Predict the 3D structure of the following.
Amino acid sequence: MSKSTPATIEDVARLAEVSIATVSRAIHTPEKVAKETRLKVTQAIAITGYTTNAMARSLRLGRSNMILVVAPDIGDPNFSNILVGLENEARSHGYGVLIGHTQNDPQRGLEYLKFLNSNQAAGMILFTGILPFGHQTMTARLPPSVGVFEPVYNGGIPYVGVDDAAGARKAIDLLIAEGHRRIAFIGESRTRLAHARRKAGYEDGLSAARLELDPRLVMPGDGTIESGRLAVEQLFMRDTLPSAFMCVNDQTAIGVMLALTARGYSIPGDFSVTGFDDVPQASFMNPTLTTIRQPRTAIGKQAMALLFKLLQDEKPEETEILLAPDLVVRNSVGGSARAAEALTHGHRRRHPLCARCRADGSLL
Amino acid sequence: MSKSTPATIEDVARLAEVSIATVSRAIHTPEKVAKETRLKVTQAIAITGYTTNAMARSLRLGRSNMILVVAPDIGDPNFSNILVGLENEARSHGYGVLIGHTQNDPQRGLEYLKFLNSNQAAGMILFTGILPFGHQTMTARLPPSVGVFEPVYNGGIPYVGVDDAAGARKAIDLLIAEGHRRIAFIGESRTRLAHARRKAGYEDGLSAARLELDPRLVMPGDGTIESGRLAVEQLFMRDTLPSAFMCVNDQTAIGVMLALTARGYSIPGDFSVTGFDDVPQASFMNPTLTTIRQPRTAIGKQAMALLFKLLQDEKPEETEILLAPDLVVRNSVGGSARAAEALTHGHRRRHPLCARCRADGSLL
DNA sequence: AGGAGTGATGTAAAGGTTTACATTCACGTC
DNA sequence: GACGTGAATGTAAACCTTTACATCACTCCT
């Protein structure tokens, strides 16, 4: 008969010949119950196979043991490893992880908001640069939340991620060390904080090397493959080209490389390219991509840990935790002292769209 | 004052001047409530911003609105898109998706079992070939479950996935059409059902073309990159090589290609390779990988739909739903009529480990 | 010896919902 | 005009915990 319906605390109490209050105490505050009684209860639990009914517990406590993780796109290659870190840490606290993807649709964001309002989640992890709900006044109702991977634009929400500026700095330092002087930054954005920070690293690197920033080499982009492609096309339209492309992320770098190879250029022979993130594909591309590694699992773990601090009402001392990025050197960056010198117009081969090339046909 | 604490059904009832029972009915069985009353309730809900407390509801109903998705590895490239399909379908039924990854550790599997026993999940999706819990007798207690991507070995659990045999058949038919006669199968496994089915497709294809299966060309493997690498090394040890490698999945194919290129062979010039799954990397490799595409999002969607059928106590008419696979032709397969004919020993270049090559040094 | 203090346990309320059962009312039928 | 029928609504129990408060039995102090 105990098979059909799960054992309740009452079954345990009856078997251990104590009251249900004692059973509850034996579980949650064992020090308040006599050793002997504790033993009886433990045995009764083992016999009945009792597990606390999480629903009843959450109802009573007014707080669930779930954390909602919201991402615009679950398929994002950066997402899964962060999720691993999040899940591990949550589970070690006895919490479960609920996932939601908004596909950047505010309507869907609102549906998840309902999850929160109905007490189904005690806290929230945001894997997105902006709050996924339209501008509801409900902001006041938001449970403790932590942003990961990209700072949350609307502010006020603590954030755990990589040190974007430091990472970008490592990339540009490498390019400069390899002899590059004309380095483009692909993927400027006013609304994406991570982009802005990476660009800051780019600027720092240039000025540390006493190189002047050529604003014509700074291209906007939203971090998609397409944006990388587009940036290259536009640079080719104009009459100067860089010898290296520092991309705001790996997706952008993929787009840049596709555009360059489509035009018949070789990497790193003709141009060097760097990315940011170290997505799984980075080591399978041709050439393999030199990039900045995100400590993804660590980000997830720390973000969840911070969230638990918030849940315990501890005001966090820091509102932002920045992890150290690593430079991963692969094959998309070449020593280009020669390339840089051989260049006249900023590119190496003659190409039809460049006005100067057409003017003097001399360039190979 | 309604700000501090979420509105309850009682607040709504008071405002609408009805009993809480009527409010509940107005929400869940509106046809049982007079039109006029229904209107009053609807307005009261809008004013108070009431949302049903999911905890209380689940407690009362004895069933939650969560589905647990268990995977050995969240980071699996196949996982994320399936998850998208699962999540979309679940949410459209008002259910949330809870995720767990076991890392193939039965201990962790058991922790999730507790989730189930405590009524936190109404059903389960298994993204794994074997039940993630040790051999507990608890099997009887398992909630409605559906396997995805790989049939569940322990049996009895309905399954939604791609038609492995048909997919494999498409791959081998392509290879045969391209002129290959000696085709290896890399990744045989006794415990993994998906592997067995793909091998069955391989066998069918061979016999349909009246080709004899050479058992020396069937290599075991667990579907990892390393297993692909190892298989190639072992084939090189022996004195016959295939002209094409049909791999049980993309990971294996990656391993095979790495091993072949490390030995200086070109693909598809010297050897052809096919994969299975069409993981995201497949289109970024060099050469890009010809493979079989998994309809991942569709698998997720249909699996979740099937699970909801089970939850509604409908005995499912079919215990297995197989989706049609697509062949994705890329660059890792070459017309190898010439290669096949030029071969003496089954490989094209002379290589030091082959006894025959060493014996007659003639082969280029 | 009486009482304060302490430690262990029990009693009962509360948390928000759903729903079986009871009640009320209006209507139509004989 | 009494009564059965059916629709609309209300009452109250049940789901399973947690915990404030009450109770009880000690020990120790004065």
Remarks:
- Chain B has three domains: 9-52, 62-163+298-325, 164-293+327-359.
- Residues 193-208 of chain B form the longest helix (16 residues).
